[in-house]
Amino acid sequence: MAAHPSQQDPAPRSPHVIVSLPTRDLERAFHFYREGLGFRLVAELEGDAMPEPVHFSLNAGVSLMLIPTGGFGWVAGGNRVAEQGVSECILSLSLETEAQIDALIARAREAGADIAAAPGQKPWGYSGTFKDPDGHVWMLQTAD
Asked: How many Å apart are CA 46 and CA 105, to the nearest integer?
């Protein structure tokens, strides 16, 4: 006998990708992306106020976050997370549970990733950070 639709497991939620970019001048970058390119803020404010953090929605599955260069390493979990000549960029993948983050960090380690920040509670939620074999930084974090 088939299960009633209300008794079936809900469809898994697609992961949301957040591309975080360092910027030397946050206000200039904010205006460039908001007015210059017309990107929509995740949290719209009255007038020209700049939110903190500066976070734009690109589509249903991808968004862009701007981070001042001075705080970029702190957000990623280490002072220097990119090697010389590699653009510092954090590719963040939002997952639903801490267990999913722990499991994916373990898989990344097994696949040869360098763990930049072990999974744990941070000011913004539960997260862990790793660098892929090319040095690209990925941050896994809980959805909330």
From this structure: 39
